[in-house]
Structure formats: C-alpha cells, structure tokens
UniProtKB/TrEMBL annotation:
Organism, as annotated: Thermoactinomyces mirandus
Protein name stated in the entry: ABC transporter ATP-binding protein
Gene3D superfamilies reported in the protein's UniProt record: P-loop containing nucleotide triphosphate hydrolases
Domain ABC transporter: from-to ranges: 5-244
Keyword field: ATP-binding, Nucleotide-binding
Source lineage: Bacteria, Bacillati, Bacillota, Bacilli, Bacillales
Length: 273
C-alpha cells in the first residue's frame, strides 16, 4: 500500500458554513507530516475526517486502503493512534492507575481496564516502555508523573495497538522546554515501528528531523503541501499566519521570527486575504 491517506476534492460543511474547501492531499508510505495553521483553520476537522468521526460533504477519502462509505470505520480506527492535550479530561480516571495499566489500556481503546489482560499484553507494554526509554516509570501511578512524563506515557499507550497512523495533536502544549524536547525525541523511536506520523502544532520549531512533509492550511483551504524544505518559506508561512514572518534553520530545525517595520508595528495589511 503506497498511499496511506488520500483526500480528493474534499469539502465539509457545518450549519451551512464551508469549513474545509476542495482539499486534495496525499500521504504516501514512509512520509511523516506536520500540519500547520491558525486556530479555526480547519486542522481539527481534517483530523476528524482522517479518523472517520466526520464524513466529507463532497469528495472522496481513502485511509489505509479503506474508502469511506465502504469501510468498517470501527476497525479502521483501531489502526489509528491519537494523542492530544484533550485526553487530560480523563485524568480523574487515570490518576490512580499504574503506568503499566495505562499503556495496556491502549489495546482496548479504553481509559481504565475492564477486560482480561494477558501476560503477552503485559510483556508488550513493558517492551514499549523500554523502547521509548520510559521503563523507569514502570510501577508509578499517573498522579505521580510530571506533565511531560504523562504526555510520553500517553504516546506509549497509543502505540499499544500497533497503529499504522499516529496523530499527535499539539502534544507539547503546556510543557517546559526540557519536557518538550524529551517528547520530541520520542519520535525517532515511533517511526521505527512502521507508524506514520501526523503532527499538529502551532510551533514550527517542533518540526524535527523525522518530519519529512508539511501541510499548510488557512481558512479551510490548503495553502501548500509537500517536502518541508519546499513548503516552509517566508512567503507561504506569512500567508498562513496572516502576518509577515521570516524563517531560519538551525540544527536542521525551522524557527520563526515575526517581521516588524521600523516603527515597531507588524505589517498585517501587507498579507493578502
């Protein structure tokens, strides 16, 4: 299977408003994507379609060889891992669970364990913790973990089901610099598990080496998509962020600076709508 995700002429409307417009996008095997755009640009709606929680109003979607309208969506969702700051709403369930139980629960897509767990499941969870350099947390309960450790354990939980796609939706929100870099370093291990990354962020410096491609979205439309070195330009990012910006590369990572005029103001009027 060469194509992991295909959107062809996809639009999605809600309450008469067009949220996504004529989206044409492909993710091919061994590509790892970052998705950039302002709040309200359509990123979440795009992800909701990828995971089958929304259907396009028009157009054709195929994910992991499953064409929407013909696919078994519950089965498809088992092949897609998802990590988001929104999962913190389950902290009241997780707080007194051990790290091992939390990771194992990923097999059942549940928060808390309500099914029988085999020795093989436990061994797999331990193996994941070791592979992600998290074995030192084994036996601890969730409420004892730092914010950064919690995020990394949720990544391990998402990998428990051997997903073919892993969505990381602003996973570094609320983390300090050290915790952020620890989480970003995990991506090297993730891609070795034949898992395709979709990484959503507002901060382009989080686009580390393993991210190969970037999708830029503004007001429900794709501004650009392709290899990151081609897409991450001053002009395209200025259009997406609706203000003049400048990009620089350090240690093979992009960093963003806002351009200002000599009087200190930002030239918002310079950016076309």
């Amino acid at each position: 299977m060469d194509r992991i995700i295909t959107f062809k002429d996809v639009s999605w409307r809600r309450n008469g408003q067009e949220i996504l417009r004529q989206i044409n996008w492909e993710v091919k095997k061994n590509e790892h994507w970052s998705i950039l755009g302002l709040n309200g640009s359509g990123k979440t709606s795009l992800l909701d379609i990828v995971t089958g929680y929304r259907f396009p109003t028009t157009g054709k979607v195929t994910v992991l060889g499953n064409e929407f309208g013909k696919a078994n969506l519950p089965e498809l969702r088992r092949k897609i891992g998802y990590v988001s700051s929104s999962l913190e709403r389950f902290s009241h369930v997780l707080d007194h669970e051990t790290v091992g139980n939390i990771v194992v629960s990923g097999k059942f897509a549940s928060f808390g364990l309500y099914e029988e767990v085999s020795d093989d499941d436990r061994e797999k969870a331990d193996s994941l913790l070791s592979a992600l350099r998290l074995a030192y947390l084994s036996g601890k309960t969730y409420h004892m973990l730092s914010q950064g450790e919690r995020k990394r354990i949720l990544v391990a939980r998402a990998l428990m089901s051997d997903p073919e796609i892993l969505i990381l939706d602003e996973p570094c929100t609320g983390l300090d610099v050290f915790a952020r870099e620890e989480l970003l370093n995990l991506m090297n291990e993730i891609v070795q598990k034949n898992c395709h990354l979709l990484y959503v962020t507002h901060h382009i410096e989080e686009i580390v080496d393993v991210i190969s491609h970037v999708l830029l979205i503004r007001d429900g439309k794709i501004v650009a998509s392709g290899p990151k070195q081609e897409v991450l330009t001053d002009e395209l990012l200025s259009e997406v962020y609706k203000m003049p910006v400048k990009i620089r590369w350090e240690e093979n990572r992009p960093w963003l600076t806002i351009k200002k005029f000599s009087n200190g103001t930002i030239g918002l009027h310079k950016i076309s709508s």
